[in-house]
Design goal:
Largest sheet: 5 strands, parallel
Structural class: alpha/beta
Strand content: 5-15%
Order of helices and strands: HHHEHEHEHEHE
Distance between the termini: 64 Å
Length: about 170
């Protein structure tokens, strides 16, 4: 007769207990199919419900973008879209502002990156305020007609971010 070390017996006991008794509830809640059923976004069937701590409150966020890298801009637009989706597209439940300064001002230029126009226009229609830094425009030799028409020009982008933080906005930098 072959002898097995104690660890093999323990593993066999766990397997037998699992087959006959089922998995422990804690395992099923955290890892098993039961947890997937209670988390509908796992299947991408519909958006997540708004977290309970936002019920009756307004989310105020200012997103600062100081990079001209398309990946950073795509990420910023994705963050804004996700916030909009989380609140069901109801602009009364969030206040969002995008501030472009430094090299990031080029992404608001009609000459540099026209593929940003569509998602930014859609988000602006849903309450996103887009701000362009005048100092960055001067440094990049841009004039008002070079910037998307739905963007508002502010004297200094960093001061706009600081002003919004003083008003209770949370600053995000994707």
């Amino acid at each position: 007769m072959r002898t097995y070390p104690l660890r093999s017996y323990q593993a066999l006991l766990v397997i037998v207990a699992t087959i006959f008794l089922g998995l422990p509830k804690a395992w099923a809640v955290h890892y098993g199919p039961a947890s997937y059923n209670s988390y509908p976004a796992f299947y991408n069937s519909h958006p997540l419900p708004t977290p309970t701590f936002f019920k009756g409150k307004v989310l105020k966020a200012v997103i600062e973008v100081d990079s001209a890298a398309p990946a950073r801009w795509n990420y910023a637009v994705a963050v804004l879209s996700n916030i909009e989706k989380a609140f069901g597209g109801d602009p009364r439940r969030y206040r969002l502002e995008l501030v472009a300064f430094g090299p990031g001002i080029r992404m608001l230029s009609v000459w540099n990156d026209a593929h940003n126009r569509m998602p930014l226009e859609r988000l602006a229609a849903h309450g996103l305020k887009i701000r362009a830094c005048h100092n960055a425009m001067l440094a990049n030799h841009l004039v008002r007609k070079d910037i998307f028409a739905f963007a508002r020009i502010v004297p200094a982008g960093v001061l706009e971010v600081a002003r919004k933080e003083m008003q209770g906005y949370v600053a995000l930098k994707p």
